[in-house]
């Protein structure tokens, strides 16, 4: 099985970091800020401010560290393989998912990228199957592969789909 492009770690890291940052801001607004305002009006307000700055610095370091660890776990646990009869996608750190998509069910393969993924030279491959559009989701999703790898994946899948359909005399 193949890993995603190594630059995927950057996108996993940034997603994790912004999630932690949003959580930290939420906790700060509703939990720490009222306490800090109360303590800042105390006689030792300078010491309180110093401790809050130190706490904020270590909280930021912890967010960076955890974002890195989770990004590495996500990268290490997102694998894909184009087999002879099916596409295999394995993902998940705590909740693991193994997806097997038979080529005969594949209807369409899309390649997409946004401004950040495009700037990093990465694309996402979406594999749609019969009946998957009714659920408004794709059956298979391979994110953060290079443009060349995305095109290779698309071509290989479509070639295998066409070959299987030609050999089985199915009209789709």
Describe, in short, the structure shown.
A hairpin with a 3-residue loop joins strand 2 and strand 3 (about 85-90).
Could you walk me through the main structural features you see in this protein, from its secondary elements to its overall organization?
The chain is of the alpha+beta class. The protein has 2 domains: 75 residues; 90 residues, PH-domain like. Helix content is 53%, strand content 23%. The chain contains 4 helices and 7 strands; from the N terminus they run βααββββαββα. The strands form 2 sheets. The chain has a 4-stranded antiparallel sheet with strand order 1-2-3-4. A 3-stranded antiparallel sheet has the order 5-6-7.
* First and last CA, distance: 29 Å
Class from secondary-structure proportions: alpha+beta
Q: What is the count of structural domains? A: 2
Biggest beta sheet attributes: 4 strands, antiparallel
Number of helices: 4
Please tell me what the overall shape is.
elongated
Oligomeric assembly? single chain
- Taking pLDDT < 50 over at least 5 consecutive residues as the criterion, the unreliable ranges are none
The side-by-side strand order for the widest beta sheet comes to 1-2-3-4
Taking Cα atoms only, what radius of gyration do you get, to the nearest Å? 23 Å
- Strand content is 15-25%
Query: Which class of the largest domain in CATH terms?
Result: Mainly Beta
Label the CATH architecture of the largest domain. Roll
Summarize model confidence as the mean pLDDT: 88
- Could you name the CATH homologous superfamily of the largest domain? Pleckstrin-homology domain (PH domain)/Phosphotyrosine-binding domain (PTB)
How helix-rich are the residues, as a percent range? 40-55%
Please write the string of helix (H) and strand (E) elements: EHHEEEEHEEH
At the third CATH level, what is the topology name of the largest domain? PH-domain like
**What's the number of extended β-strand segments?**
7
């Amino acid at each position: 099985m193949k890993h995603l492009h190594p630059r995927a770690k950057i996108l996993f890291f940034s997603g994790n970091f912004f999630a932690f940052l949003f959580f930290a801001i939420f906790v700060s607004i509703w939990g720490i800020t009222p306490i800090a305002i109360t303590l800042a009006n105390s006689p030792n307000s300078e010491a309180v401010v110093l401790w809050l700055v130190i706490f904020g610095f270590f909280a930021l370091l912890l967010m960076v560290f955890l974002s890195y660890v989770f990004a590495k776990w996500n990268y290490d646990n997102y694998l894909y393989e184009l087999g002879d009869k099916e596409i295999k996608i394995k993902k998940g750190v705590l909740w693991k998912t193994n997806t097997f998509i038979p080529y005969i069910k594949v209807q369409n393969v899309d390649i997409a990228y946004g401004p950040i993924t495009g700037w990093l030279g990465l694309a996402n491959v979406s594999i749609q199957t019969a009946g998957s559009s009714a659920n408004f989701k794709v059956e298979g999703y391979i994110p953060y592969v290079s443009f060349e790898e995305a095109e290779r994946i698309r071509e290989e899948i479509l070639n295998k789909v066409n070959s299987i359909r030609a050999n089985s005399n199915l009209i789709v």
